[in-house]
Amino acid sequence: MSNNIEETPQQPRKRSWKRILLIGLAIVVGFIVVASVGFVAWANNTPEPTSAAIAALQSDGVVAIQDEDGVLRFEPTGQLATTGLIFYPGGRVDYHAYAAPLRQLAEQGYLVLVPEMPLNLAVFDADSAATLIADNPDIDTWVVGGHSLGGAMAAGFAADNSTLIDGLALWAAYPAAGTDLTASPLEIATIYASNDGLATLDDIDNARYLLPNDAQWTLIEGGNHAQFGSYGVQNGDGIATIDEATQHSAIVAAMMELMARLEE
After folding, report:
1. Is pLDDT larger for residue 47 or for residue 255?
2. Which of 46, 76, 167, 188 could disulfide-link 143, Cβ–Cβ 3.0 to 4.6 Å?
């Protein structure tokens, strides 16, 4: 006689909602980590400053240069500067890359400060000028400026801090939509280039309504986007028909016109 016991199949254990949520959370966190690492790598993948920029970073009897605590400082040695420029670098551009034209401004007696931006993007520290202004109380007159994304962030700072500064310099840049400077008391200069493939002539023209009627406009014929600094070819840019030194000279001349307006 045999005992036939009919076995009941076991039901598969159901996963608890808690475990499902934990798995989902782990996937989301993993995605965020991977995306963040990729973004940091992208932001820090900047072109190297060219030999022209490196050569302009050497101190001499006219300009003393310091590169400390994330601030590049150009200071005239023969006179006490009373006017200063705080310059925001373009997006994903090494802050040393603007040394050549900025040094020329320091040679004319102006203090020039270039903050290193987190992840090489001025959007992450658009108010850094406020700290630099507070750290340099001997300067009576301040201009804030920048190239490309740096210029847009400088415009935003200028709109919110017109009592701290006296001028705004936009290099191949324009205010972001909603940054209305039409009634600003500041002296404002826009310096742009005919062959710029990134801040195009249409881009500049379409932003004119955000700036006051007495703003200074300087078009550099034959210049392009990358030659506002010294960092080689930039993807999407137009081809310059003038050399970098010529474009820098035009930038400095336009900046000197802005500085002269501040002294009137």
Report:
1. 255
2. 167
